TrEMBL record:
The protein's name in its UniProt record: RidA family protein
Lineage: Bacteria, Pseudomonadati, Pseudomonadota, Alphaproteobacteria, Rhodobacterales
UniProt cross-references to Gene3D superfamilies, sorted A to Z: RutC-like (3.30.1330.40)
Organism of provenance: Roseobacter ponti
Pfam families tied to this protein: Ribonuc_L-PSP
Source organism, top-level taxon: Bacteria
CDD domains hit by this protein: YjgF_YER057c_UK114_family
InterPro entries recorded: RutC-like_sf, YjgF/YER057c/UK114
Length: 129
C-alpha cells in the first residue's frame, strides 16, 4: 500500500491517510459492521471499551484470511454522539499502532443502532497478497 498525501490540501485531522493506493492482484476482505458483543453476549460500557471489542472482532475476522491490521486500507466507524469520538479514536489508534501505512478513515455520527447500549460500530476493508 502507498499512502497518498497530495500537496494543496490540509493534513489529516487524525491518524489516517487521505488516500491509499493498492497494487493490482490483491485479495480483499470486507467486514460487516462490528458491534461490541462478546462471545458470551456481553456488551461492555463506554465507547473505548466497545471500540476495542469491535477491533478485536475485526482482528479475528482478518486472521481467518491470514490478514491483520497492517492490511487494513479503510476504516468506517459510526458513533451515536460526538462524546464517543475520543474513546473510539483511542481504540482505533491502538489497533493501528504498529502499521506502516495508515488506512483511510471515515467517522460518522448516527442516531443509534439496533440496541440502545451500542454506541460504536466499526467496519473495515483490507487487502493482501
Amino acid at each position: 500500500m502507498k499512502p497518498l498525501a497530495p500537496s494543496g490540501i490540509s493534513a489529516p485531522v487524525a491518524r489516517y491517510s487521505h488516500g491509499v493506493e493498492l497494487p493490482a492482484g490483491l485479495r480483499w476482505v470486507r467486514t460487516a459492521g462490528q458491534l461490541a458483543i462478546g462471545a458470551d453476549g456481553s456488551v461492555p460500557e463506554g465507547s473505548e471499551a466497545q471500540a476495542r471489542m469491535c477491533f478485536d472482532n475485526i482482528a479475528k475476522i482478518l486472521a481467518e484470511a491470514d490478514m491483520g491490521a497492517g492490511d487494513v486500507c479503510h476504516v468506517t466507524a459510526y458513533v451515536t454522539d460526538r462524546a464517543h469520538m475520543a474513546g473510539y479514536m483511542i481504540a482505533r489508534d491502538a489497533f493501528l499502532e504498529s502499521v506502516s501505512v495508515l488506512p483511510t478513515s471515515t467517522l460518522l455520527i448516527v442516531s443509534g443502532f439496533t440496541r440502545p447500549e451500542f454506541v460504536v460500530e466499526v467496519e473495515v476493508w483490507a487487502a493482501a497478497p
